[in-house]
Specification:
Radius of gyration: 12 Å
Largest sheet: none
Oligomer: single chain
Shape: globular
Number of domains: 1
Number of helices: 3
Distance between the termini: 27 Å
Strand content: under 5%
Length: 76
């Protein structure tokens, strides 16, 4: 992925994670609360076969942005 697309994704991740602060459901594995800044990249990685968004091709950009939007609208 190009550095420009990585930066755009990172900015969008930060924005979405900020909106999710305190909204993720409680989880006994996270007794002090869940971290939305780690949650969204983890979702992306799980749905792309264990590959970080940073290592995906530019063709995946729109898909990653849609995933971020979905996570923001549907805290889980």
């Amino acid at each position: 992925m190009t550095p420009e697309n990585k930066n755009r994704i990172r900015q969008r991740l930060t924005e979405a994670a900020g909106k999710l602060e305190g909204l993720l459901p409680d989880n006994p594995m996270h007794p002090t609360g869940r971290n939305p800044y780690a949650h969204i990249p983890s979702v992306i990685k799980n749905l792309t076969g264990g590959v970080s968004y940073k290592n995906l091709p530019d063709e995946a950009f729109d898909f990653i942005m849609e995933l971020i939007q979905y996570c923001e609208e549907n805290p889980f």
